[in-house]
Amino acid sequence: MDKLYEDTLLLDFYGQLLTERQFEIMDMHFNNDYSLGEIAEQLNISRQGVYDNIKRGKALLKRMEEKLGLVEKFVKQKNKAQEILINIKSLSKNGICEEDIITLKRIEEGIIQIIEG
After folding, report:
1. CATH number, domain containing residue 30
2. 117 pLDDT above the threshold of 80
3. How far is CA 58 from the centre of its chain?
4. What is the sign, positive or negative, of the torsion defined by CA atoms of 106, 107, 108, 112?
């Protein structure tokens, strides 16, 4: 999994367990793509302070994931849903009644909603 994507997922799942300041800094960095310098300037702290907050915050998020495993479960479920969607789309529609085709389309749409969140 891409490191930035993993960090963003960890923040999404466990971010509210951080201090308000850590969450604010990490949100600016990972979700809003601010540089350390930009965050430091906006919050009137040093770049080192920003870096330290991100480092401590990431360590805490990783510990939470090690204990709870919510991100890993989420990624596995999403991958499984994508696999199911591929299998449904590969079904031959020949010989299937119109009602079943409509049902398959609704299932596809439901799975797409799950995947896209």
Report:
1. 1.10.10.10
2. no
3. 15
4. positive
